[in-house]
Every structure is written in structure tokens, then in C-alpha cells.
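Researcher: I'm comparing several assemblies side by side, and this is the next one on my list. It has 891 residues spread over two chains. Same procedure as the others: predict the full complex and return the structure.
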Amino acid sequence: MKGWFEWAYRDMLSFFPENVSTFGAQLDGLFSFVYWISVLIFLLTYFLLIAFIIKYRAQPNRKSYHFHGSNIVEFTWTILPTFLFVGIGLFSEDAWTKTKYQMKVPKPDVEVDVMAYQFGWQIRYPGPDGIFGKKDRNQMSKMNLFGLDSNDVNGKDDIIIENAQLHLPINKNVVVNLSTADVLHSFFLPNFRVKQDALPGKWIKVWFNGTKAGKYEIACAELCGSNHYAMRGEIFMYSQQDYDKWLDGKNKTMLELQQKMKAEQEAATAATTSDSTATTQGS
Amino acid sequence: MSATSAVANNHHDVHSHSHDHHGHDHHELSFIQKYIFSTDHKVIARQFMFSALFFLFVGGFFALLIRWQLAYPGKAIPIIGNLLPATWVTDGVVQASFYTQLLTMHGSVMIFLVIIPLAVGMFGNFCIPLMLGTDDMALPKLNMFSFWLMPPAAMITMGGFWFPDGMAAAGWTSYPPLAVINGPGQTCWLIGVFLIGFSSIMGGVNYITTILNKRTPGMTLFRMPLTVWALFITAMLIVLGTPVLAAALSMQFFDQFLGSSFFIPDNLVTTKKFVGGGQAVLFQHLFWFYSHPAVYIMILTPMGIVSDVLATFARKPLYGYKAMIFALMAIAFLGFIVWGHHMFQSGMNPLLGTTFMLSTIVIAVPSAIKIFNWLGTIWRGNIHFTAASMNALAFIATFIIGGLSGVFMASAPIDIYIHDTYFIVAHIHYVLFGGALFGIFAGIYYWFPKMFGKMLNENMGRKHFYWSFIFFNLTFFPMHILGVGGHMRRIYDPYIYDFLKPFQPMNEFITIAAGLLGFSQLILVVNILWTIKFGKKAPDNPWNANTLEWSAPTPPPHGNFTEDIRVYRGPYEYSMPGAKEDYAPQTKQDIPSEVEGEIVDESMFKAH
């Protein structure tokens, strides 16, 4: 029974998960603004409804008031809600432009690519050179979800994280380029008040600015198949120092990996050359 | 069966009134022509009612399986768990793939096979000819066809049942690419819903034709009851909107079956390969262009029913009759330019988000007008509480909450967070269950005596109302809280997320309330079956109502009216000052006054 009735005695607004983004407070503020207006309208209309039901319940000797309504009254209760609701709309506009308009996305301090797929998220950092490699849709495959162009050197050092863990610094404008490799998904960061559907064949910029270090969750909010529920990711927010340390570590591993691969490749080429020489000699 | 025999008895009555020319043909009708492939609008209304009530329980069963999984993920379903097919459950536990089928079919069944057939099919057929004082629909054969398309369409919609991949599993919204890469269950769903849409269009065309052409003399448009007005506007929404849905479904069918790519971009990393550059968002635009008006298709008729029921039981003219009609028109018109509010987070241009936010928020105005006018109707009335009027009052109560929660998601930035969470689920159930279904219940309790010639058991009716109203609120109100907590919809196991773990007890509570809500609906079925067998015979006008259907014999014979009728006034002239009775049937020219022998001049009480 514990927790069964939590909805009944706790204020609705207290159920929001902790907000850790800069614009989150504005969005939550907007929610509570509409919430209190709704509570007011709710109390007013319910008061009238219940009062009328009690006061005008059937009594044998009473006759109803024969009245068809009045234009002035109709006019009033058309105009007042119009102002109220349009007001709410205009009041919301600022937050919407700020969070979603693609041309108003701030200059990124950190930029990452996020590719959704059935059923997970892949994340790409630009790597030691700081430049994302080119993408080519024709090269997209299960092994290469981003469709990295194999001819582009800038892409060779890109860091791809396959376990859906996003690492970011706090107090920086983060821009996520979001897309999906297969069906629709929706990139949902509850604590950051971010939600954006990922569209196949299209890259959408999603931005936020985290304010508090810690570990948070990434969820998928658009039905994407049987394991939709299991598209859980994690987002780690660090101070700039810790972030740099993490990123340097990744970059270093990437460089080492690259050198190792290069060496192996050279060795392999050398081997094939000697092999082919041997074959030529043999024939 | 005794209801049908009551109808049969009445045929003889009609026959004795030799001036009814219908008496001659239908004496020769066989049982099948009379009760199965009937062109009589009243029989078709009953057919819609029984089929939709059957599907109400199918959809409800799906909902309860969903609820069980959310409250107790990984636990076997009690009692029936082991009886379900192995493709649905393993050891009695719902499988993830079946869960997505469940949520898809719950939505599809409830919307396409329950609410629309009840609100539009049943009441449209029953009320329009009777309330307009005519013998039948303008196109009775089309009418019959519109019903008989439903059973095969329903079978096909759920046809995936026969395939190993199961039923459709892409949500009732069927968004591509997911829907397109899904299996044959999805193809069945597309064809089934296409046919249901076809049935809707045939009904809609028929309603418009009937209302425009078959009104009895004196029945001007502005003397029509609100139910008929609502059905008229609903029919226009159907005729304008449903073809667009049909187009969207056909295009998706081509994508899925013939390999075209209207909605699918190239090089997807999926098992099915597509060439050509389609746009996934295009489907959403087409789908919501129909499906947003569809919400009004489901709610406008219940709004009309509530208006009629409230005026009758408050014994008072409807407040602002014309304002109510204009509000219906405004809702219908605005309904066509707000579809984008379903797509704020879909990746369409955010500039459009701004436009749709403003149009959406404006649609709250006519809804508010309706609420105020209903309150005005019961103000200074003399409200009689019956199962019908209590359900109508409950409609207002829940529609206020559903309307207010709509304002949250109409604001695009607020929608960012609550989109695709349980806040939306709560909202749609407050509007469609709390709103549409309570309105439909009010209509069933109100017109049942006329439909079947028997009075529903009032005691059971009240019990059904109280239990439904209480458990409805206990089920769906807490869902707002889940939504504020960020609980996504359509997830099989919420508790793999740390931030959703604390909501397990609340989900458990909701599930128990939902179960009881489901069981309370059995009271309605028992009541209907019991009444048909043992119910008290209904008088012609049990509620002392004004509208024309109450001037017909109970139940109305084939051809409805036994004498020529004329309409002399509007439908809501209750409690006229100076009149002896507190009602003034639309068909009666002279209203007896309080003082014996004197006649009140009808012209004094013209409808406004």
C-alpha cells in the first residue's frame, strides 16, 4: 500500500525530476504558470457545477426558469477566454523559439553526433583533430551506423561510443546533432527537459546547457519496436576539468589505436609485397 | 430476443393503422431481412450498439493486460495467464513484442471499433431520422452496407492474430518507418482501418443527405436538437477528413507491400531495403490531418447528447442554443488547422510549431463556451437525477479536466517535456473515456426506452454510473502525475529507468482501479440484457421530453411515425411560464395553459 496514494496528497509540481539545465527552469515555470491558471479555472467551474447540482436539484414545487440565454453573457465568456488563452500562447512563444528554433541554436562549445537505432544510441565525438569526418548515406550499415565516409581522413580519428553513454561538461552549450539509422526514435533527457524526435535522413540540432555534475538518464520516447522500453542510455555531466581528463583519455586511446592499426597495416602490406615477390619468383 | 419480438408486435399495431404504407412491404420480410441485413435505421443502430459494446470489452481486456504488465512486470498474469497463446505470453508473463501489439490494438479497437461506431454509427442512425420526424435515412441500403462493412473490417484489423508475427505493433498512429518494416499484421491493420474509414464515409454522406433533405415540415435547421446538429457537423468532418486518412493508409500500404517509398528515406539500416527519398514526417501530417478532426468526430456527438439530456432533466431551455451550434462549428473548423500540435517534437520546422500552438490554443475557446453554456443550462433549473443526467453531468466534470490538461500540451514548450508521457495518456482518456464514453452512456440511458421499448433498471444504472465515475477518476487522474514524473507511454517495463522506479506503487494502484473500472462496465451489460428480458415496458415519452422521437410509438415501428407530424417550435421549450405542463413537444401546436380551458399562443414561445 506504501506509495499507492502519493498522487492524492503531494503537489503535482513536486513530481518533476530534478532540473539540471539552464532553460529547464523556464519550461518548468511555464508549466506551473498554466498549472495554477488551470487550478483556478477548475475550482471556479467545479464550484459552480457542484453548487448548481445541489441548489437546483429537483423539488416538487419548483419550476425551472424559462430563459434562453443572453448575447452579452455569451460575448463576455467568449472574449475573456480568448484573451486568456492567446495570452498563454504568446507567453509560451519565447521559450519555444529559444529551445527549438534551429537558427537560434547557440554556438556550440561541445558538439556531438547522436545516432539512434533499434535499440540503442551511438555517440560520436570528433576525436583528436576536433573535426567530424564526412558522412555518406550510401555507406550506412550495421557496422557503420553513422555512414562514415571511408575516404575522409578527418573521420579516421572520430570516437564512436557504442554503449549509449554521453559524457559532457557542465555550464557549456552542448549541441547534439540527432538522427536515426532506422525507425523514428525520440531523444528524451528528463532532467534536462529535452525531447526531440530523431528522423531518418535528417540531422536535427538539439541543444542544452547542463548546470549540475552527475549521472542522468537518456530515454527513448517514441515507440520504435518491441525493445523500445530498453533504449536506456546514460549521460555523465562533469566539471570542465574532469571532462577534459575523460576526453584526453579517449583521444589518447584513439591515437594509440590508430597508430597500432597503421603499424599493423604497414606490416600487412609489407607481408603481401614479400608474398607476391615470392609468388612471382616461384612461378 | 424479446426486444425484437416487441418490435414484431408493433408491426401488427402499425398494420392496424392502415394509413401507414410501410405496413405492406415489411410483412413479407424474412427474419434475416428484418434483423440482420436490415435497412431499418433503428435495427442498424442496435447492430452498431451491440457490436461496439462487444469490442468495448475486447479493448478493455487489452488495456487490463497492459496495466498488469505496468504494475507487475515479469509476474505471471493471474488465472488466465496460462490460457493465453504462447506467442503472447511466456509462462504467463506478457512478452515485450506482444505488449506493443496490445497497446496498438487497444487504441485501434477503442477508437475505430468502439467510440466512433457508438457515437456516430449508433446515435447517428437512431437519432437523425427520429429527431427529424422522418421514416428512415435518405439512403437506407448504403446505411446497411456501412454497418456490414464493420465486421469484416474489424476481423481484418485484428487479422495479424493468425500470423506468427502477431497483430499490428506500431501504435494506433502507425508511424512509418516502423509500421512499414513490420510484418503482415500491419498490412492487415492498414486494410482494416481503410475499410472502417470507408464505412464512416458512407455513414457521413448519408447523414448529411438525410439532414438536408428529409426534415419534416416545420423542422428548420435552427429547430434541430443539438444532437442532430452535432451529428451533422461530425458527418462533415468525416466526409472531409477520412479520405485523407485513406490516402495516407494507401500510401503506407504501397510502401509496405509494393516497395514504394513515400515515407521512407533511402539507406535505412533495416532488413527491408528502400530506394528513393521519402519523408517520414509526411505520413504524420496526413495522419493527423484526419486524426485530429477524428477526436472531434468522437466528442461532438456526445456533446450534443449531453446538451439534450441536460435540458430535458433540468426542465429548462438549453442556454445559448445558437451559441452552442456556433461553438460546434468553430470547433469543427479549427479542428482542421490544429493537427500539427501532435507533431511539436516530430522534427517538423519549429516555425510551424508556433503557428499550430496559436491555432490550438484558440480551440480551447469554443470548448470553454460549451462548458459555460451547460452550466447556464442547469442554473436555476430543476435537475432530476437519473442515470442519464448523472452521466451527462459527469461528462461536464471530466471534460473540464480533459480540456484544461489540453492547454498544457497546446503550449509547444510545455509539450517538450510532457509529450509522449502519461500526461498525454491521461488527457486523451479524460476526453475520450471521461468525455465521449460518459456522453454515450448518457445517450444509452436516455434513448434505451425508445430503442428497445423497455425501461432500463434505474438502480443498476446508478450503480454503473457511480462505480464508473469513481474508478475512472482513480484510474486516470494519477496518470497526470506519472506524466509530470516523466513516465513515457508505450513502455513495456518502466522500472529499468532509475527515475521511474518510485512510480511502481502508483502504477499498482492505477491497475487495481482499472480492473474495477473494467468490472463496473459489466453492470451495464447485465442491465441491458436483464432489461431486454424482464424490463418494464416503456411509455412513449418517459422523460417528458420535447423532441420528435418521443412522439413516435415505443418502440417505433418500421417507418417510425404513425401519423403525419409537423414541428411548431424549437426543441428546448421546457417550463414555459403560464403553461400547464413543464414541457412543450415540438409536434404540438397548442400548449394547454395553467388555467383550465385556455390555450397559450404558440407564437409567444418561438425558439431563439
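Model: For your comparison table: Residues 17-56+68-103 of chain A form one domain.
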